[in-house]
Amino acid sequence: MTIRHFLDLDALDAKTLRGILDAAHAMKKAGKRSPAKLVPKGIEGAVLAMVFEKPSTRTRLSFDVAMRQLGGQAIPLNHTDLQLGRGESIADTARVLSRYIDAIMIRAHSHETLMELARHATVPVINGLTDKSHPCQVMADLMTFEESKGSLKGRVAAWIGDGNNVAASWMHAAVRFGFTLRVATPAELRPEKSVIDWVRREKGDVMITDDPVKAVRGADCVVTDTWVSMGQTGAEHRKKILKPYAVDADLMAKAAKGAIFMHCLPAYRGHEVTADVIDGPSSVVFDEAENRLHVQKAILAWCLGSQ
Ligand code: CP
Ligand code: NVA
After folding, report:
1. Parent domain of 198
2. How far apart (Å, rounded) are the C-alpha atoms in residues 172 and 194?
3. Same domain, 278 and 296
4. How many domains does the chain divide into?
5. Residues with Cβ within 6 A of ligand 2?
């Protein structure tokens, strides 16, 4: 049977992703007791290994609580506590973990680590963030967008700031869910060419610009993220060139009436976003953080549904 890895939004088809998002909405509606029809048989007693090469609050907690609410358990593993930290290969680690547990979530520095793990694991592998993408986060963002604005079709989202891992998953999402995305970054911090090329091949409605005002004009949703992602260097240079991309009340005023503000968190007030925006009435950042839990349950149910 095909193993249901959740590695990236471009690696899954639109129907599968829509199904996961619908399940996430249903999980939220049902509260802690997930609807029986959404919980795959055998998940009771299932164990998720969570491997972390970088810090995490939301991903760690939401996956752990998600497993408990589904009737399973999760084991958090810091990579330095594993033999992985002493040079045991990813491939051998994948083979060994697969003998004990039912699924692996990994937060890795390098995307290649995630892919190598998935190549050698015989259980589902979930991307909990790499240097290239953050698909679980963007599924929660889309859920939050839908809660606030209804159907995504025809909606306009604006990504402002660094063309980073989260931006890449937003680009994948625009193609898979059929909405318009405008990405405004300084020229040197544009999303990776491979992601732009993929969007063009898929005929996605994604504009790449260096003008934040052009990006937010009429947008239903404005999204940003930290200017210095985990593992990145050159913080001072980044902060300097990203300064014109700070999301403040003036920029939000140029978006559509009633536009929402999103940020995956952790946020740095006074840098990528002003306090009056992130703590103001258009901000849905804590709904977005909560929705990580509901989306994680839906992703886990989908991954483990193949067992
Ligand atoms: N947004 C997000 O992934 O948060 P954590 O780094 O706290 O997991
Ligand atoms: N782009 C950020 C997201 C943190 C959740 C990072 O990679 O650090």
Report:
1. 136-288
2. 11
3. no
4. 2
5. 129, 164-166, 225-226, 229-230, 264
